[in-house]
Amino acid sequence: MHVAIMQPYFLPYIGYFQLVEAVDRFVVYDTVEYTKKGWINRNRMLRNGEAVMFSVPLKKDSDFLQVRDRRLADDFDPVKLGNQFAGAYRKAQQFDLVMPVLREILSYKSANLFDYIRNSLDRCCDYLGITTPIVASSEIETSSGLRGTARVLSLCDALGADRYTNAIGGLDLYRSSEFAARGIALRFLRSRPDPYPQGGEPFQPYLSIIDVMMHNPVEDIRTMLREGFDIVDGREESDVSLAETR
Fold first, then answer.
1. Among 193, 11, 191, 7, CA closest to 85
2. Which of 58, 98, 116, 192 yields a CA-CA distance of 20 to 30 A from 74?
3. Cα separation of 123 and 28, whole Å?
4. Of 98, 116, 129, 107, nearest to 212 (Cα)?
5. Residues in a beta bridge with 51
């Protein structure tokens, strides 16, 4: 069983979906605290040749609430956000195919942040032909109160994983020896910024998956999902310790 675990991100970059495509089971944390500085409810689109931020506004609440307990703002206008995308991508090659899907995603009838994001991931996967099951971390029975590596290993054990692949951002966080002790091979996925036609120069990499969908036929995106990344081995404890001192 090949497993990956990530935080929930709204319309994330293609590397997120490369990870979903690469594994047998994809776990999304719904029991992590929401952080304003992350990518949970925001990402970037291409507008007039520049990368600009878009976001789904949230109700003001405690910073210590978990993602599954956060709510969308009452004044969130999905039509307005959709119009921003329409204005930015109206000349894109796949606009007529993608825009109805995006409108459907944005108008999803749930004010719960995690449910809203999970639906967006499901709909994007449907469009992209990704069939990997996506499950919430709370749906998997594990010991409570675990954090960091212990939490990841507990989820992997519960799913019977023998392989775990993480996004490259976690390279310095996990030690391959700790996973190997549980019979799990640790690897990391590094998405490559391979250029595709965006209707202008210079190429802007790592934008929301919507940018990829707007500018590329699904069959081309399928190739990106399967081939547009490199796999990096996990580090041993000594390697991680050295990196932490730099």
1. 11
2. 98
3. 15
4. 98
5. 46
Q: In terms of C-beta distances under 8 Å and separation of at least 24 residues, what long-range contacts does 154-157 make, across chains too?
A: 155/3, 155/5, 155/27, 156/3, 156/182, 156/184, 157/182
Residues 6+ apart with CB under 8 A from 9: 16, 38, 39, 40, 43, 117
| AA identity, residue 144 | S
Distance CA 214, CA 99 (A): 8
* pLDDT tens readout for residues 50-86: 999 999 999 999 878 999 999 999 999 999 999 999 9
How crowded is the C-beta side of 16, counted as CA atoms within 13 Å? 25
Domain count, the chain: 1
Tell the residue number behind the tokens 């050295």, with chain if given: 242
SS3 72: strand
Amino acid at 112: N
pTM of full prediction above 0.90: yes
How far, CA to CA in Å, does 12 sit from each of 79, 151, 209?
A: 20, 23, 6
Q: What is the pLDDT of residue 237?
A: 62
The C-alpha atoms of residue 46 and residue 211 are separated, in whole angstroms, by 7
Average pLDDT for 179-184: 97
* Residues 6+ away with beta carbon under 8 Å from 183: 162
Q: Using CA atoms in the order 98, 103, 106, 110, what is the torsion angle rounded to 10 degrees?
A: -120
Provide the pairing of β-strand 2-6 with 25-28.
Answer: parallel
Range of the domain at 78: 2-245
The token pair that represents 59 in the structure block: 């109700």
Q: Which two tokens stand for residue 75?
A: 């004044």
pLDDT at 201: 85
